């Protein structure tokens, strides 16, 4: 029916949008950050299935999800600490070498 084709078309459009967003994020972040985001996405899907849909999970799956979540937070904290470091100031001969040549 027309309504079913509308749902299929909406699903296709959603898939294209998600793929485009994934490619765009991949251009903006490091490979490691992208992998952490991918794992966080899987964690969200699993939690949604368990909480909203009532799917059962085993103890080992729950421990794995917890480890993944802890690792994601640990990585985010390490990235924040790294970006908070002061950048070295380059002067003297090194600064001359870094200046673009006209």
* Count of beta strands: 0
General form: flat
- Secondary-structure element sequence? HHHH
| Gyration radius, rounded | 22 Å
Number of domains: 1
User: What is the overall pLDDT average?
Assistant: 84
Beta strand %? under 5%
Keywords: Membrane, Transmembrane, Transmembrane helix
Transmembrane segments: 28-51, 57-76
Protein name: Sugar phosphate transporter domain-containing protein
Primary descriptors:
102 residues; mainly alpha
Structure description:
With 102 residues, the protein is mostly helical. It contains 4 helices and no strands. The chain has helices spanning 2-28, 31-51, 59-84, 93-98. Helix 2 (31-51) runs antiparallel to helix 3. The longest helix is centred in the first third of the chain and has 27 residues, at 2-28. The chain is flat.
Summarize the structure.
The chain has helices spanning 2-28, 31-51, 59-84, 93-98. With 102 residues, the protein is an all-alpha fold.
Secondary structure layout plus pairing:
Elements: H1 2-28, H2 31-51, H3 59-84, H4 93-98
Helix pairs in contact: 2-3
């Amino acid at each position: 029916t027309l309504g079913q084709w509308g749902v299929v078309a909406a699903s296709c459009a959603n898939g294209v949008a998600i793929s485009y967003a994934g490619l765009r994020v991949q251009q903006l972040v490091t490979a490691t950050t992208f992998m952490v985001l991918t794992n966080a996405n899987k964690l969200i899907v699993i939690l949604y299935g368990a909480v909203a849909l009532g799917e059962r999970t085993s103890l080992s799956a729950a421990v794995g999800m917890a480890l993944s979540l802890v690792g994601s937070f640990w990585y985010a904290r390490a990235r924040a600490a790294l970006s908070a470091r002061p950048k070295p100031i380059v002067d003297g001969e090194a600064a001359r070498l870094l200046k673009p040549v006209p």
